[in-house]
Amino acid sequence: MRRLPLCCWLLISAGVLLACANAGRSEAARSDEAPGCDRPLGAAVRAVPFVRRQAVVYTEEEQACWLPWDLARAAAEAPGGQWVDVRDAGQRQRLALEGVMAVDLADLPDKPFLKEQSLALVGTGVDLPELSRQCVLLRQSGQYRSVHVLLGGAHAWRQAGRAVSGSQTSLPADQVDAQEMWQGAGNGAWRLAVLDMPPAQVRELADRLPAAAQDVADLGADAAHAVRQLHALARQPLPAPRQWLVIAGSPERLAQARQFWQEQQNGQKNAQNRSAASAVMWLAGGWPAYAEYVQRQAAVAAHAGQPLPPLCGI
Fold first, then answer.
1. Beta-carbon-side half-sphere exposure of residue 184 (alpha carbons within 13 Å)
2. In DSSP terms, which residues pair with 258 in a beta bridge?
3. Where are the alpha helices (DSSP H) in 60-197?
4. Quick one: what percent of the chain has pLDDT higher than 70?
């Protein structure tokens, strides 16, 4: 084998050094854009367009599938009726509905023992589009006595005082996390009410979520006054599937308002007022939890197609 002349080796070495230098610069650029564990998200991440979700439009057939808690319970617990938990396996593990049959939504048509029964499907509460479409298909098959979807899903089950188990039971029954808030906003699940939030934050909600600015009720900054307003609003039923979702400016304000709300509800004996309580949900962690969720989603969008930055501590 012939040995390469010295000039060839020099050219090859220069090429390798240039390639390494370029790789180093690219890595440094990515590091500047990537959110680190010891600093907040950079301007490059915050500038990533985070697409505003468009609200789902439901057909009349899909709307005919929906039932509130009382009617869904009557259908499922009558002779020939059956509750069916159609959430995915991970969701069922985190929050199990005691005494409810669990079947993956896609597997329902393959379960002959459910045929000729009245099914009440229980989802997450923010997966209504998928459940509604499947409900229509199951009805059209003609193999079931009836098929309905429980409005509010697992949240409605918990608010009715039914037994649950799992790690997610630590989250109060009347609260949703930021991801559920975001998903439900696109599914038409929420009418927003804000508490102790400056106009800039309210505008950001309107910009990012499929709700016009006039669709956000501002309850003001005083928690006691806000709860009185919320009672008045909740007494006026919203069109299905919407519920009131209260977003507080801080976890402290959230806790204060919820305490006032629960105290007033405990003193109410009127059935209409008690039903109004189940029509109100609260965002766990308030505005800070939502802002953190949006930042995380923006970070994912900023690094789409690139290796994600390492997790803190790893």
1. 28
2. none
3. 60-63, 69-76, 89-94, 128-141, 153-159, 178-186
4. 74
Residue among 157, 186, 169, 181 at smallest CA distance from 57: 186
pLDDT reported for residue 210: 66
Q: In this structure, what are the phi and psi dihedrals at residue 54, rounded to the nearest 5 degrees?
A: -95, 135
Q: How confident is the model at residue 25 (pLDDT cuts 50, 70, 90)?
A: very low
User: Which token pair is 175?
Assistant: 């609260």
Query: What's the sign of the alpha-carbon dihedral 166, 172, 174, 180?
Result: negative
The CA R_g of the chain, rounded to the nearest whole Å, is 26
295/47 Cα distance (integer angstroms): 10
Give the pLDDT confidence score for residue 16 in this predicted structure: 47
User: What single DSSP character describes residue 53?
Assistant: P
Backbone angles phi, psi at 188, to 5 degrees: 75, 25
Q: Which two tokens stand for residue 244?
A: 């009131």
* Beta-carbon contacts of residue 42 (< 8 Å; ≥ 6 apart): 32, 33, 35
Helices (H) and strands (E) in the chain, counts: 13, 12
**88 three-class SS:** coil
Tokens of 50: 């985070």
Between the alpha carbon of residue 154 and those of residues 95, 117, 128, 167, the distances in Å are 9, 21, 12, 14
Amino acid present at 294? V
Minimum mean pLDDT among 214-223, 281-290, 296-305: which range?
296-305
Pair of tokens at residue 306: 């690139």
What letter represents residue 23's amino acid? A
Q: Compute φ and ψ for 192, nearest 5 degrees.
A: -85, 140
Q: In the numeric block, which tokens belong to residue 198?
A: 């400056």
Separation between Cα atoms, residue 234 and residue 159, nearest integer Å: 16
Positive or negative, the CA dihedral 35, 41, 45, 49 is positive
pLDDT at 52: 53
Task: Report DSSP state, residue 300.
Answer: H
